[in-house]
Design a protein that fits this description.
There is one protein chain. By secondary structure, this protein is an alpha+beta fold. It is built from 13 helices and ten strands. It has helices at 5-28, 33-59, 74-86, 105-111, 115-118, 129-144, 202-205, 208-228, 238-248, 282-287, 295-303, 327-331, 364-380; strands spanning 91-94, 100-103, 149-157, 160-171, 180-186, 252-257, 268-273, 307-309, 333-343, 346-356. The strands form two sheets. A five-stranded antiparallel beta sheet has the order 2-1-5-4-3, with helices on one face. Strand 9 and strand 10 (346-356) form a beta hairpin. Helix 1 (5-28) runs antiparallel to helix 2 and helix 8 (208-228) runs parallel beside helix 13. The chain is elongated.
Length: 386
């Protein structure tokens, strides 16, 4: 519980954000109601105690100077660090804000990177979007001192998705002003029961020759398509261009076009293509969203600069569905890139590609290719009035 008004307000704001995330998750994934409900009950219990103790907590004076911190033996510290790093169980140590303070070798391998790469990043960013809200609520409950938590979750990073069982334990150390959380990862207790897309084979996704050949094939096919539609009496089929990219390079493709020079606020959603296994009506719902209501592609249209998100950190950048759920969470996004459609008279639109969490993330080489394709599409668009 907080000791002053500023901390109390911070906790209330964090509680509101987690409750909103749980509500969106329940709306988007009603089949996961069990896990979401358990996390919601934990938040409700905390809210009850927070309201009941707020007056007394704010009125209580600070209890005096903190106890002096004890310095452990250096040899013991080195020994414990070595044991932690070589422990066969994947373990992550999180700070009070959920950032990775330390991670052992097995844990780094589980998250798909080296210890130095993942340290300092929010642990939630390695959790699949549909499981992220529940994990954050349980993490907050453990940090509050509600006891350890055990939950089923899913990791999604670098082209694979893996169900895991997470055990969260609060640690209070004399050398730390705030409590820490130790997260142990183990195989799921109930087996893998996710109905999402299966992970792709990393051996195929990571072959340099295969990737280079795929990019060249996409560029060649797009050039052929644009030349075919280059007749003066024939309108450019943006849906065909989106279909081509969705068939060979991404799961979701969104094309937004500015027909008039008023700016990004006047942009229209010209084409949306999704995977064959997308729920019925989902494509139409995405197509009906105004481009100007989201950071992307609004920023691309306004500034004319490309954006690359190898890992989705903010699930709200593409806006929200009618029910309030973030678009990227609904689509199961893992990575995203958006490039301008640049014509002879400036930016004519934006091309946004999304890959789900079961595929390899977009890279700089992918961005370069799609920028080239975006410029070709922009030049092929009919001239707009000045």
């Amino acid at each position: 519980m907080s000791d002053n008004l500023a901390d109390l307000q911070r906790e209330i704001n964090a509680l509101s954000e987690r409750v909103a995330a749980l509500r969106n998750t329940h709306t988007t994934y009603p089949d996961d109601a069990g896990g979401t409900a358990e996390a919601a009950l934990a938040e409700l219990d905390y809210a009850e105690r927070l309201l009941g103790d707020a007056g007394a907590e704010l009125a209580r004076a600070l209890s005096g100077p903190a106890e002096p911190r004890r310095s452990g033996d250096d040899n013991d510290r080195v020994l414990l660090r070595a044991m932690f790093n070589e422990l066969s169980v994947p373990v992550v140590l999180l700070d009070h804000d959920g950032y990775i303070r330390r991670i052992n070798n097995a844990g780094a391998e589980q998250l798909g990177g080296a210890p130095g790469y993942v340290t300092g990043k929010p642990f939630a960013h390695f959790v699949d979007l549909r499981k992220r809200a529940a994990m954050q609520s349980w993490l907050a409950a453990v940090l509050r001192g509600d006891g350890p938590a055990s939950l089923e979750s899913r990791l999604a990073q670098r082209g694979w998705a893996e169900d895991v069982h997470l055990t969260l334990t609060r640690l209070e150390l004399p050398t730390e002003a705030q409590p820490l959380v130790l997260v142990a990862m183990s195989p799921p207790m109930n087996g893998a029961d996710e109905d999402g897309p299966s992970p792709l084979e990393p051996e195929v996704e990571d072959q340099v020759v295969v990737l280079a050949a795929r990019r060249l094939d996409v560029l060649t096919r797009m050039t052929r398509l644009l030349l075919r539609d280059a007749a003066p009496t024939k309108a450019l089929a943006l849906a065909d261009a989106a279909d081509l990219l969705a068939d060979s390079y991404a799961d979701w493709v969104i094309i937004d076009v500015c027909d008039l020079p008023e700016g990004p606020e006047a942009a229209r959603r010209a084409a949306v293509v999704g995977p064959a296994d997308a729920p019925e009506g989902q494509r139409d719902e995405v197509a009906a969203l105004p481009p100007s209501d989201s950071d992307i592609p609004g920023e691309v249209l306004g500034r004319g600069q490309s954006l690359l998100f190898p890992l989705i950190e903010d699930e709200t950048v593409l806006g929200s569905m009618g029910a309030g759920a973030p678009v990227l969470a609904v689509l199961g996004a893992g990575s995203l890139l958006s490039v301008p459609l640049r014509g002879s008279r400036g930016v004519r639109g934006a091309l946004t590609l999304i890959r789900r969490s079961n595929r390899g993330s977009f890279r700089l080489a992918d961005l370069g290719l799609i920028e080239e394709i975006g410029e070709h599409i922009g030049l092929a668009l009919p001239p707009r009035p000045l």
